[in-house]
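Researcher: I need the complex structure. Ligand is zinc ion. Inputs:
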Amino acid sequence: MVELHLHLTGAMAPRTCYELYLEQGIPLPKGVHSVKTMAKFLRVDPHAKDLGEVLKVFDYICKPLQKLDALRRVSYEVVKQLDDQHLEYAEIRFAPAKSCSNGLTQDQVMDAVIEGIEQGLKERPSIRIGVLLCLMRGMSEEQNRETLEIAKRRKGTIVCGLDLAGDEGKYGLKDYAHFFEEAKKEGIPFTIHAGEVDRPENLKLAMELGAKRLGHATYMVHYPELMAEAKKRKVMIECCLTSNFGTKGIPALNQHPIRKFLEAGIPVCLNTDDPTLFGTSIKREKDLAKGIYHFTEQELALMGHMAYEYRFLK
Ligand SMILES: [Zn+2]
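Model: Output:
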């Protein structure tokens, strides 16, 4: 099994989050007084109105991730979590700029995350991990520039690509396009969160910029010309069934366009996005694909194979 769309911070175990809050003496969020209540707090409210509301929980998740030992621990644990699910390959993405509120530099953050991942890989040698760096919608030009520079400097290591994350409804893509033009010139592959809200211009631009994959892209199904473009360019859509319902990217869990994408000749793969927030796992996503969308084992195997072909760590 392969997973290409997984956020490090959205995969942090509730127990770890709770313990880090206590260890660092950070006041707990209202109503949280145990691992169980932390888990409940981190779970996306099924009545959340949109993506912006869902993303608010990351402010709390990132609070204890301003320290190097915490970053090492979470990265190490996530590798083990992924290996426990018998994944052969996974890409973990994160935004180093989100851990720089208390004086760390993005390079220090990166070193800690890589150390944690490498420690995990030492103990679990059968899984392969690639790391994607997320530029963030809403972050400053300087912060995103620094992230891009890190990706450039670390090219050829397990840091193998870029992403653009954050509130697409509020910020779009245009203001960040120049970073991806540069990444393309540098030969750094990238995916972009696009079409998670109804902004077709973001999907169009992401493909024009040369994104090899698109995160979510659920709204593409309403635009036949964009579907044709995705097919022509062989752009893979990273589908996250539970997440897409949680952020209102689809109106109901049984109304994901994954089948329509596949039938239109667009490569797709299954992902969790943020397993802790959405209470899911890659196995659960596969079960949903089988149960709701009637994917056969053969089709699922083919999707896994395609995902592997579209990985950024070669
Ligand atoms: Zn995502």
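Model: Summary of the prediction. The longest helix spans residues 106-123.
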